[in-house]
Amino acid sequence: MQAKETLFADLVQGRAQQFQVPLYQRTYSWTEKQLGQLWNDILEQAELIERGEKANTHFLGSVVLAPSPQNEATFPRWLVVDGQQRLTTLSLALAAIRDHIRDAQPDEAERIDEEYLINKRKSGSDHFRLLPTQADRPQFAAHVRGPLTEQATGGSVAAAYTFFRRKLVEAADPAAPQDVFRIEQAITSRLTLVAVTAERSDNVHRIFESLNNTGLKLSQADLLRNYLFMKLPTRGEHVYETYWLPLQDSLRNEELELLMWLQLVLDGDDRVRRQDLYAAQQQHFERGGAREDEIEAYIKELHRSAALFRRLLHPEEEPDPSVRAHLHRLDTWQALATYPALMLLLDRRQRGELDSADTARALSYIESFLVRRMICRVLPNSLGRIFQAVPAQLPLDVPVADGLHHVLSADNRFWPDDDELREKIQKAPFYRYGLAPQRKMVLQRLEESYEHPEPVDFAAARLTIEHVMPQSPGDEWLRMLDEDTADGENPQDLHSRLQHTLGNLTLTAINSELSNHPFERKQGLLHGSHLEMNRRIAATERWGAKEILARADELTDRAVALWPSPLRGVGRAERSRDWHLAHQVLAALPHGTWTSYGDLAAFLGSGAQAVGNHLAGTPGVANAYRVLTSEGKVSDGFRWTSADENGDVRSRLSADGVAFTVTGAADPAQRLTADDLALLVADANDQTEDSASAQSTPNAPGEETRADRFFRQLAADDSPETVEAVRALLARWEELGGWIGHGAGQVTTSAFLMLGKAGAPGRGIWPLTLYPGGGRGGTAQVVFQYLAAREPFTDRVLRLEFLKRLNDLEGVDIPEGKLELHPSFRLSVLESDRNRELLGEALAWFRDRWESRNTA
Q1: pTM recorded for the entire structure
Q2: What is the CA angle 243-249-255, rounded to 5?
Q3: Residues 761-781: what's their mean pLDDT?
Q4: Which of 516, 511, 534, 509 minimizes the C-alpha distance to 524?
Q5: For the purposes of burial, counting CB atoms within 10 Å of the CB of 255, is it exposed (0-12), middle (13-18) or buried (19 or more)?
Q6: What Å distances lie between residue 397 and 268, 347, 402, 770, CA to CA?
């Protein structure tokens, strides 16, 4: 066998050749976790290229090749013994780049195709430079050859291609634009591989078995620790007992690794990656001769910094109450990206360069930076880079807190000012952006700003976010909204535009009691609240559009006072970010779905007309033709924006899997609402407050249980037959070995069909969530998005099978395009004995798949 370091371009370019994945290899299986790590590595290399740094490359792994039995002298063919996941992923990334630039730069797209993806003068399967296993071949070929068909959608190959198409749209972020050709160069010329070439006589099966029988790899902290004590031949025992052992006892291994990385950043290295910690620190020590006193001083400094670092992980250990409050909120925010700046502040305070009051002021700038960006829907993907640069960029000639204020206000930091904050609080769907703890913290801080003489103990109170105007409005709410409509807007559109804005949200511990009741009923309940913001809502005569916008103005005044604004004159962000978010979500539209101008506007916090004008005047927006009127018709004003795009829009939609009714309208079942669009770009791990609080334990004696509350609310909206059918379904689920969890609910309570350890839903899984209907009939929500992140249902084939089994129920017709979302069906369909039998079989199948996940 021969081994040499190579690049992807050197491996696949040149004369016609082919890399064949043999049958004994598993199918392509990379998920978003592996894809995301690779994408971060690609972007880092692209940034190095931009800065002109030529020496650094990133080692991607090995590729083991052996001559194929089909090898020909004029057309070399190689078996990919190991490394097919890497080769397939890089090929799909290049196919996505080709398609991303095809309309604007067709010649460059053709170049990418011929250099990396195809053998131009070959036909059939020989046309492709990479030939995956038979199971993956049709999808891979469809994405390389194009155009895509319905048969090419679904599966890991399609998911990886879609991931890169979405990330290429994100890479055009005006805060940190990435040139697409630098990304191509990073993939082809900056990711190094070790190509191991076997001879024909070598046993490739034995090679494959040995390569895939690896143990647990050492962490960066393990490697660095071993190196450090190897360099302490005379002082090692003393240093270990005095400094290292207490350090190791106070932090877990991954926390220690993070501290080691932060120490490098605090020393001014704003480019080092965590995965390169060992190499970077080793290089640092070797430059200085790796003397024992230097090694000991480093470990002693780590020991000192650990006490400060623990305050980030455990804010209760911070002695100053004001600083402690800020650290608690940042911990709630899950602000890991800010750690370099937080460590710098605590370190400078300990060194006497600022006091606790200035430390708290500096922390308020960081909190404001995060909160304002979240409210104004600024993508968080550049936060790590921003805060890693803070220690090296902090001015030396101004106080630390003022210097931090200046750094965060600088160009391309996108810290929204007061005017943008006011606009977004009025218009943006606050409830559909950021993480649930972040949204709750914003409302908690706003409540605290009223400085009530008997403030609520938020740590003890079980508060959830409540929509004052409910998410499922009854007729009384719609009649009231009808009084506020203008310019042709209907009550449903007005509701969609305002329901998730901050002005319509509050905190309450009686979420389920408030439910979807008319405002007069809610007034009485809110009047008795201990929260000042609820008493103010209760004092309002009605609750329509004017009242929601008026409250938004009031909350903005408080937000401006709570969260400091950026400095003027340092630099200001462009206002094109909202449209970038629109491009991102349209690029992520699943096959077989469409959305409306109103839905997209409600998701963005904009207006339907503004959305239409932008799409009509902006070339190259992916899937712009899949934005239709609310009736499912192509807008009269729609025009193709690129000369390469033409033809009948309806035919194009049909090719994308969109069905049409007899009236010529797009199938409403395939329509994605504003909430569906939010799910397309949401973190699947950001579970709803309902699921996070699901519980099966009984309440206190005499208190209504959540189960009783669920059936009481269900009986208020559904027929007795539906209620009994739901009881039978839950009993059947328990017979299958599941348990029923009940949440406090977003609007009402709910019932979760749980598997796993009872009382600990985060460790288990659930296929369905049942909701009372709030006047519209109860629904069963299928949580496909969450299942996609949980084994074994990360396999799209299994989710698709579950969908097909659900669609066997009469009255259930969930489009395949909603396989990554939260589609639902009416609980009333369970009144049918046959439907209950089919659903029971589907749930038994689901249970069997989950229980066999560790034995497959």
Answers
A1: 0.72
A2: 100
A3: 78
A4: 534
A5: middle
A6: 17, 18, 10, 60
